[in-house]
Design a protein that fits this description.
Elements (H helix, E strand, L loop, with lengths): L1 E5 L3 H12 L6 E5 L2 H10 L4 E4 L8 H10 L6 E6 L5 H6 L4 E4 L4 H34 L6 E5 L2 E5 L4 E7 L2 E6 L3 E5 L2 H8 L4 E5 L2 E4 L3 E6 L5 E5 L4 E4 L24
Parallel strand pairs: 1-2, 1-3, 3-4, 4-5
Antiparallel strand pairs: 6-7, 8-9, 8-12, 9-10, 11-12, 13-14, 14-15
Length: about 260
């Protein structure tokens, strides 16, 4: 634990420091004489536990908690240490861990620190569980699908099953190995939607799914063509030759593969 003592009484600071020094679970502790100094330390360092006197000189302990929240600073587990019992209700309303009356014994402070430690560990465990759940969610297999409307029906197809897309006037033709669909849409918008699924634009009127590409053909004219699974070929126009680089990022052999 990292602990910050906020108290304006030197004797109290010394007594708390002695307790903290004797604990093996305290990594570091520091002291502040008032709330302003405490805010400065909290802004530059992180603490797990705050041992806080309600009646620090220039700001009440509950006001300090409010300031931490307003400044969006990390809120440590708080143990109020004070002489005035009437502040107990206000303190607990601020979700503090414990409330210790002065004069206190080492055992009583130790109990409060144990409680603060358990809360800190519980919060850390909760954050870890949340992080693991997020990781689990991200690692789940994704099943993307495209909704298309054709012949009065709404069909769902997997974008990874689409071999190529070609523009035909105000329409696009989604070509799969087994069938195709003519849809009213612009090729530019379709290109944006399908880019995350491995589609590259090879012509102002054509997209190809790189998963189906089996060969890049080079011609004596310096132009390129793509042959996809099944044997169909697509021409690559000059303005889109640079998009072929993604096809040869993983390669075996030396020398330039594409003059683009």
């Amino acid at each position: 634990m990292r602990v910050l003592i906020v108290d304006d009484e030197p004797l109290t600071q010394t007594a708390l420091a002695n307790v903290l020094s004797a604990r093996s679970d305290v990594e570091h502790f520091d002291s502040a004489n008032d709330a302003i100094e405490a805010l400065e330390k909290l802004a530059t360092d992180s603490y797990d536990v705050l041992l806080l006197d309600i009646n620090v000189l220039d700001l009440s302990g509950t006001e300090l908690v409010d300031h931490l929240r307003e400044r969006d600073l990390p809120l440590p587990s708080i143990v109020f240490v004070t002489e005035r019992l009437e502040h107990a209700i206000a303190a607990f309303e601020k979700h503090t861990v414990d409330y210790v009356l002065k004069p206190f014994s080492n055992q009583r402070i130790g109990e409060a620190l144990d409680r603060a430690s358990r809360r800190a560990k519980g919060e850390q465990a909760a954050k870890l569980i949340e992080a693991l759940l997020q990781l689990q969610k991200l690692s789940r297999p994704q099943y993307p699908r495209i909704a298309i409307k054709t012949k009065g029906r709404i069909l769902f197809i997997n974008p990874t099953d689409v071999v190529a897309v070609q523009a035909e006037g105000n329409y696009v033709l989604l070509q799969r190995e087994s069938d195709s669909y003519l849809l009213r849409e612009s090729i530019t918008l379709v290109a944006e939607k399908l880019e995350p699924y491995g589609f590259i634009r090879i012509h102002r009127s054509a997209l190809v799914n790189i998963a189906f590409v089996v060969e890049i053909k080079t011609y004596s004219t310096g132009k390129y063509g793509l042959r996809v699974r099944g044997g169909k070929e697509y021409a690559v126009t000059r303005g889109y030759k640079k998009n072929l680089k993604s096809l040869t990022e993983f390669r075996i052999g030396s020398g330039a593969f594409l003059a683009v």
